Amino acid sequence: MIIVLKNDVKELELTNFTEYIKNKYNVGVHISHGHNSTVVGLVGDTSSVDEDSIGAQSIVQSVKRVQEPYKKANRKFHPDNTVITLKNGLKIGDGSITVIAGPCSVESEEQVVEVAQAVKNSGAKILRGGAFKPRTSPYAFQGMGADGLELLEKANNETGLPVISEIMAASQLPLFNDVDIIQVGARNMQNFELLKFLGKVNKPILLKRGLANTIEELLMSAEYIMASGNENVILCERGIRTFETSMRNTLDISAVPMLKRLSHLPVFIDPSHASGITWMVEPLSMAAVAAGADGLIIEVHNNPSAALCDGAQSLTPSQFESVMINIKKIASALDKNV
Amino acid sequence: MIIVLKNDVKELELTNFTEYIKNKYNVGVHISHGHNSTVVGLVGDTSSVDEDSIGAQSIVQSVKRVQEPYKKANRKFHPDNTVITLKNGLKIGDGSITVIAGPCSVESEEQVVEVAQAVKNSGAKILRGGAFKPRTSPYAFQGMGADGLELLEKANNETGLPVISEIMAASQLPLFNDVDIIQVGARNMQNFELLKFLGKVNKPILLKRGLANTIEELLMSAEYIMASGNENVILCERGIRTFETSMRNTLDISAVPMLKRLSHLPVFIDPSHASGITWMVEPLSMAAVAAGADGLIIEVHNNPSAALCDGAQSLTPSQFESVMINIKKIASALDKNV
Amino acid sequence: MIIVLKNDVKELELTNFTEYIKNKYNVGVHISHGHNSTVVGLVGDTSSVDEDSIGAQSIVQSVKRVQEPYKKANRKFHPDNTVITLKNGLKIGDGSITVIAGPCSVESEEQVVEVAQAVKNSGAKILRGGAFKPRTSPYAFQGMGADGLELLEKANNETGLPVISEIMAASQLPLFNDVDIIQVGARNMQNFELLKFLGKVNKPILLKRGLANTIEELLMSAEYIMASGNENVILCERGIRTFETSMRNTLDISAVPMLKRLSHLPVFIDPSHASGITWMVEPLSMAAVAAGADGLIIEVHNNPSAALCDGAQSLTPSQFESVMINIKKIASALDKNV
Amino acid sequence: MIIVLKNDVKELELTNFTEYIKNKYNVGVHISHGHNSTVVGLVGDTSSVDEDSIGAQSIVQSVKRVQEPYKKANRKFHPDNTVITLKNGLKIGDGSITVIAGPCSVESEEQVVEVAQAVKNSGAKILRGGAFKPRTSPYAFQGMGADGLELLEKANNETGLPVISEIMAASQLPLFNDVDIIQVGARNMQNFELLKFLGKVNKPILLKRGLANTIEELLMSAEYIMASGNENVILCERGIRTFETSMRNTLDISAVPMLKRLSHLPVFIDPSHASGITWMVEPLSMAAVAAGADGLIIEVHNNPSAALCDGAQSLTPSQFESVMINIKKIASALDKNV
Asked: Do the bridges between strand C126-128 and strand C163-167 make them parallel or antiparallel, or are there none, so unpaired?
C-alpha cells in the first residue's frame, strides 16, 4: 500500500503515524522523501489494513492499494486452477465446459423431471431449479420451498444429474442436504453473515456477482466463504445493471478473462439472467465459451409461457438443444469438451 | 396493467390468453382492438401479476404497469404521513427534523458515552452506533457484536437518547432487545428473508436504499416488511453508486421529494455514507433539509483519525455542532423544528 | 404509441386532445375506454411524435412508444443486411469478418507503413490510424492532423489497404478526401450537427457508441446520418462506462446480437478501447466473433511503450497475429471467413 | 504522479525509463526503492504526462496521479472566486444567487416576450431560450435557428434581460452576436473542437456537465476553453444518468460543494433537465441554494402543454413565482441575495 502524505507534514507527525500503523496492522513501513511529497510504503500483508481509516488521518493526502486485498481467491498465491469434484465424480474447472440447466422455479414433479431428462439428453451435466426465489415483490410467487427441494431430489433419482439450488437464509440449510451445489444469488452477494455461514458448509458454493458490484467485490465475497473454511467456490457473472433498456441486464463478458487471470476459481456465465430474453441465450453462450468460461447456467422450461417466474428468459428443450450444438462448435474449435 | 399484443393475434389465442390471466390473477380484463394492435387492460389489483410471465407469452409484444406494485407503502392509499413514536415519546415524521448521530462503530464505553453526550448537547435526538459491521473484506474489523450493543445501552442510560443499530442476520435479533430502531443496511436491502423476518418484529425499521437500487425497489423492500405486519418503516437514502470518483457515493437528493410523494413513510438522508468525506456532510445536510427530508443520520466520532471504520467521513463533535447550527437556519426559514 | 389518460378525463378534454394530436403529427387516433382508464392509441408514423410533449399534457398519465423511433436503420423495413463496398471492392457486412487494425495515432511514416504491412500480412483488410485525437486534456497530444492523414495515404499507397480515420469537426472534411471510411468517435455520437453534415458525405461512416448511451440512442444517431442521405453506416460498440475499475470500459457483447436484430447495418466491435488492456483484446475478439459481429477494429503499434496515446491497449504485430489465428478458429467453426 | 514499478525491474531498465520520462515531459524524477517495490515520483508540472502511455511501459505496475490535471480551472492556483460581469453590469459568482429562466425553445415573439416579462417580474436576471436544439431524433423539432436568436434579441430589447442560448456548431457563431452567454449542452461537453473554438470567443460560456461524465472531466472541458484564452466559464450540473426511472436524470447535488472546492468558477444547477418533472423543480432549486450554488437555470413556458419540446419539465409563470419565493427564503437564511 502506497500512502502519499500532504506537503507540510512535520517529522514528529510522521513518526507518530508510522508507529501507529506498524503497531495496529503488524506491517513494515518504508518512507521516501520526494521533492514535494513524502510517500510511505507498507510492507507485508496489508489485507487487513483499512484504507478509509488511513485516509482519515489528517496528514494523509491519498492512499493506493498495490496488493490485491484477497488472498485465498488470488491466483498469485495459487497458480493452478481450482478443480471441484462433485459426489458423482463430475469435475468443474478442469478445462472442459460444464453446462447447468433447468427451470427457474421448481413447479411440479412432472415439470422438473421432464426438463431434467431433456437437458440431460442434450448434454447438460447438472440440474438447476429454484425452491426459494428472491422476488422484488412480496406478492409474487416465492418458490415451493422445502417441497421444491424434494422434487429436485426426485429428478436427481430419475436422471442421476447432480442438483444446484439457491439458499436465501442460513436457517434453510438443513433442507439442502441432498443438494450438490448451493447457489448464492446476486442480491445476497454481500450478505456477509450468510457468506461466513456457508464457509463452514461442506458443499461447493456458486456465488453470483451482484448487479452493481465490481469484480474485486465479487472476489472479496468469495474470500469471505474461503476464509471461513470452504474453498470450493464457483464464480458466476450473471449480467450487471447498466443504462441499457432493450434487455434486462448487460452481460459483462470481460469478467471471464479478468476473473480467470486474477483468481484460480472456476468462472461460469448465466446468459439467461444476463439478458432476460430467450433468443439472446444462444449468442451469449457462444461468446462465453469463446471468452474462456468454465461453464454456463441456463434456464430451460418445458412450457415457458406458463412458467411461474422468469418465463421470458427460459428456453424450450429444443431451443436448448440448439444452444448446445452451437457451443460445442466453439468449444471444439478451441479443443475443449462440453 | 396495459398489455400490447402482437399484430397477428388470432381470436382463439386472445380468448385463451385472457381466460388464463383472469383465472390466474383474479383480475378483470378489458380488450380494445386498434387499427394495428390490440391492447388488453387489466382491471383490479395487479400487484401480484408477474410482468415477466405475461411478457413471455408468445402473443405479447410488451407490457406496461400503470399501477404502482406497492400498496401498504403507497401514499395513494394512505394520504397522511406516517408518524412513528418511540418509547420515550419522540416522534419521527411529524413535520420536524430528527437528527440521529453517533459513531460508525461502537468501540468502547468511553467513546460511545462521550460522543452520545456531545451530540445530545448539539441537538441530536437519537444515538447511532454499529455493533455488527458489514465490511467488504473478511479481514477488516467486523464490529464488537453483542458487547457493542451493551455499550449502546449504557450510553442510553447515561443520556436518555434512544438508540439505533444495524442488524445483519435474523439470528442476531435477541441481542437487539434494548435497541429502539433496527437498521437494515444498503447491502441487505434485498435480503428478502431478513425483511420478512423484521416484518414480525415490534420495533421501527430504518431501511437503507441499496447502492444501485431504484426508488421503486426501495419501496418494494419496505413493502416486504409492511406486508409481514410491521408498518413502522423509515426510508433512508445514503448515496448511490455512480461513475463519480471524487467522493464515495452520490447523494440522490431527488429521492427525498420523490419518496415523499410516492409514499407516506418518513424519509431520512445519510450524508456521511453518501459522500464519505467530512467536509461534505454540512452542505449535504443543508440540502437535505431544504429538499424536505424528515431527518438525518450523521457519523460523529470523538477521534476520527483513530476510528476503527469509516473515519474519513466522521465529524468531530465541534464539526457536528456547526452542521446543527446550519441546518437549524434552513429549517427555521421553512418553519420547521430540528 | 399508447397514451394512458388520467382517471377523471372529461369528454371535451379528450376531444380537444385527440384533435390536437391528429393535426400536429398527422397520425390517426384510436380511443378505448377501459373500466378505470382511457387509452389512446396513435396510428401511423409516430417517429416525429414527441413523448415529452405528450406527457406534459395535463390529462395524460403515461406514454409508451410501441414502434421504434428509427426507420431507415430499422430491420423491420429493410430485412436484408446492408453490405458496404469500398473503392477497392472490399465488402463489409456480407457475412465475412472484416478486421481493421493499426495505430491509435499516426506518428511517423515509418511507424504507420511498418504497422500497415504487418497487419496486412496477418489478415487485416483495412488500416486504422488517428490524425485528430479526442483527448480529455487540452495538454495531451492532439494528433498530427493533416500531416497524419497524408501519412495514412502513403501507407495506403504502399500496402493497398483502405484507410479509416476519425473526424472531429465538419471543417476537417476537406482533409479526408483520400480516407475510405470516416469514423465518428464515442464522444461525438450525439454531436448532431456533425452527424447531419456527414449525412451529405459520400463515404461510409463508422459510428461509435457513446460511453453511456443506449442501443436505441446509437440507432437514432445512425438515423441522423441516414435521414440526411448517407445510408452507409457501420455501428461500433467500443465499451460502455460501468462501475468496474479493473479495466477501462466494459464491452457490451449483447449489443452485437441486439443490434443485428434491430438493424440491418453492419456491427463492429472495438476490443482495444473496450478494455484498454493488451491481453484482453484476444479473448474479447474471440467472443465478438462468436456473438456474431461483422468485424473488429484493433489497435496495433510497432512499439506500444513509445506510443503517443493509448499505448496500454495496443498490441504488437506478433500479438495481433495471435489474435487473428484465434478468431479464425472461431470463424471457421461458424463457417465464416475472416 | 506516483509510478509503482513491477518487482523485478533491472537497474538499466529503470535508468532508461526515467531518462525517457525526463526528456519527453520535462519533469523531474525521484526514485525510492522499497522492500518489494520501487516507486518513481514525478516532480513538476505533470499535466501533459499521459498516464496511459506510462502505464503501457512493460516495467510499470500502476500509476497514480497526485496533482489535478487541470490548472486554469484549479482553485489551488486561483483561490479567489471568479466573478463574471455581463454587459449590463450583472455579476455572476459574486456571492449572490443568479436565476436564469425562460422557455426550452423559442417558439414565437409573443411567447418569448411574455415569458421574459413574467420571469423578470419574479426576479430572474437572465433570459434563456433555445434556438438550436439537440434532439435525439432527427424527426423531432430542431429549433427555430437564426429566427429564434432574433426573437431572443427582441425579448432583450423589451425587458433588458441579458440572454443565453445554446450553440451546437462553430459555424453558428456569427448568429450569436447579440447573445450574452453561450451555452454548451451536455452532449457536446466533450466536443473538444467546439470547446477550443469557444476558447477564442469573447463571451462567457455556460458549460453543462455530460450525462455520464465525472466532475474531473467537466473541469478538463472547462480547461479546454480556458487554455484557449477564455476564462469566463460557468459550470452547470444538469443531472446525470443513473438507474433511477421515476425521473429523467438524477441531480448530483454533491457536485456543488465539490466543484466550489476544486475550482474558482461559478457553479449553476439546472433543476428542470435534472428531473424532467415540473413539481420537482421547486425542492431541487431549494436544495441547490442550500448546497451553495451560485445560480439556477430554470425552464418556464407560458403554456407548457403546447411547448414544442420538454413541456413536461416547464413551469408556468406562477409556478416559477412560487420557486422564487422559496429559494429566497433559503438564500435569506444564509445571508445571500437572489
From this structure: parallel
The H-assigned helical ranges of chain A are 11-25, 51-56, 109-122, 146-159, 192-198, 215-227, 255-262, 271-275, 281-291, 317-333
Neighbouring CB atoms inside 10 A of D12's CB total: 8
Percentage of chain B beyond pLDDT 90 is 75
Q: Domain limits of chain B?
A: 2-64, 84-333
Q: Which whole number is the average pLDDT over C114-142?
A: 95
CATH number for region B2-64: 3.30.70.1140
Nearest to D49 by CA among D26, D77, D31, D71: D26
pLDDT at A31: 85
Same topology for domains C2-64 and C84-333, yes or no? Answer: no
- The verdict on a CB contact (< 8 Å) between D290 and B286 is yes
Residues 6+ apart with CB under 8 A from C83: C91, C92, C93, C94, C266
pLDDT at D250 over 90: yes
Interface chains of chain A (3 or more CB pairs under 8 Å): B, C, D
The superfamily (CATH) of domain C84-333 is Aldolase class I (3.20.20.70)
- Count CB neighbours of C236 within 10 A: 28
Q: How far apart are CA D180 and CA D73, in angstroms?
A: 22
pLDDT tens digit string along A280-326?
A: 999 999 999 999 999 999 999 998 777 777 777 899 999 999 999 99
Residue to test with chain B: of A54, A141, A190, A194, most B Cβ within 10 A: A190
pLDDT above 90 for D241:
yes
Q: Give the tens place of pLDDT for each residue, B118-151.
A: 999 999 999 999 999 999 999 988 999 999 999 9
pTM comes to 0.95
Judging contacts by C-beta atoms under 8 Å, the chain C residues touching residue A214 are 243-246
DSSP per-residue codes, B46-104: -TT--HHHHHTSTTEEEEE--S-S-STTBTTT--SPP-EE-TTS-EESSSSPEEEEE-S
ipTM: 0.94
- Cβ neighbours of D215 in B, within 8 Å: 244, 246
Helices vs strands, H then E, count in chain C: 10, 14
Question: With the C-alpha atoms ordered A150, A152, A155, A160, is the resulting torsion angle positive or negative?
Answer: negative
CA B300 to mean position of chain CA atoms: 21
